[in-house]
Amino acid sequence: MKQDNMSTLEHDQINTQIVNYLSGQASEEEISQLEYWIKSSTQNHDYYLQVKNVWEVYGKPFNPSDISTKEALEKVLQLTDIKVQRPGFWFYLQRVAAILFIPIMLGSFLWGRFSHISKTAVADQEVYNEVFAAYGTRSTLLLADGSKVWLNSGSSLSYPIKFKDEKRIVKLKGEAYFEVHADVSRPFIVQAQSINVIATGTKFNVQAFSGRNETQISLIKGKVLVNKQNGENNSSTIAELKPNQHLVYNTTSGKKELKDENVYRYVAWKDGKLIFRGEPLSEILKKISQIYNVEIETHGKSLQDFKYRATFQDESLDDILKLLKISAPIDYKEVKRNPLPDGSFPRKKIIIFSK
User: Fold this and answer.
1) Dihedral angle computed from the Cα positions of residues 223, 267, 130 and 135, in that order, rounded to the nearest 10 degrees
2) What pLDDT is attached to residue 308?
3) I need a labelling partner for 241 at 20 to 30 A (CA). Which of 34, 85, 162, 206 fits?
4) What is the pLDDT of residues 111-134, one digit of tens each?
5) In angstroms, rounded to a whole number, what is the distance separating the alpha carbons of residues 192 and 151?
6) CA-atom Rg of the chain in angstroms
7) Residue 345 confidence class, pLDDT cut points 50, 70, 90
8) Section 163-176 average pLDDT
9) What number of H helices and E strands is found in the chain?
């Protein structure tokens, strides 16, 4: 059942049951009712995952044994000077998000409510939109030329409302998967840091997070040309990719590595999957940290190089950590978060250590 079609009473009852369950205060009857509701439709299951991801990504600032769920939510609202109007959990989250600028949507159907959109004018008078995918979420959008974009957690894309020139240029911060509408006369260009990825009609993935000196491009179909922008009118070719090739380029040293392999694991995130095939634990934790906006600290050098193989699909942060604990020689603990002077909370921190 879609949330928009639910009655206000049923909406509040379900949200109360979810919150009670996540805070460990649900009765056996509530757990049974909630499990039945979750299994009754895909929409219900997706909605439950939304609330659970938000609860875990942005943290549980109060101990349920010390304060009731309702009081905890009211206290969160007090920190943001919001007057409590009704006990709907999703209602509260919307208000908290609006004040703290924490977008909490999951999936493209909530994108319009929570994604951050801003319009700026560039020198050529083209009007640009900027879309941001909140941590723990992913978004999809359709560009004016018919190209489709999947935006990964913590990423943003700036694009014109209408492509006016002979080039279709978008600007990426983070990670995105593109299915480009074919138009040989107007190349599609993804600008990411100092890299330009040029295509006409193809499917590819670009990963270029700020603060990292590595850019990665994976090609599914067609071909792309990867250039380094050395100045306004000066560029040099880094590589031309063919299908099932993955490029890792170090923007600092200029070193590049081009591999022929099945590249689906690099783009599986758009389908809600995290696929690891023998990567070091340090790389896995870095990926998890990016998606869920959590600080992860590893104790013990031996853990950094531990190779791990697994596939996670639409798992919450807590679920992934529990599965890692079961299948790898690690344990973890969550560092208690205390409110900052301005009333906000620091980013969640997890410490990973050897068993």
Assistant:
1) -160
2) 85
3) 162
4) 444 444 444 444 456 688 999 998
5) 14
6) 22
7) confident
8) 92
9) 10, 19
CA-to-CA dists, residue 294 to 135, 228, 302, 329, angstroms: 9, 31, 22, 21
List strand residue ranges (DSSP E) for 186-317, in order: 188-192, 195-199, 203-208, 214-221, 224-231, 234-241, 245-250, 256-260, 273-280, 295-299, 307-313
* Lookup: tokens for 225: 């040309």
Tally of CB atoms within 10 A around 311: 12
Q: Within 13 Å, how many C-alpha atoms sit on residue 74's CB side?
A: 9
| Contact present, 336 and 66 (Cβ < 8 Å) | no
> What CA–CA distance (Å, rounded) separates 346 from 250?
31
Alpha helices in the chain (DSSP H): 8-22, 28-39, 42-57, 69-79, 89-100, 111-114, 264-267, 281-292, 301-304, 317-327
pLDDT at site 11: 67
Name which of 88, 86, 69, 71 is nearest 11 in CA terms: 88
Query: Side chain identity at 111, as an amino acid letter?
Result: W
N-terminal to C-terminal alpha carbon distance within the chain: 43
Average pLDDT of the chain to the nearest whole number:
78
Q: Which residue has the tokens 């593109």?
A: 178
Contacts of 14 (CB under 8 A, 6+ apart): 6, 34, 37
Angle at 25 between CA 22 and CA 26, to 5 degrees: 80
| Cα–Cα dist 294/188, whole Å | 34
**How would residue 198 be classed by pLDDT, with cut points 50, 70 and 90?**
very high
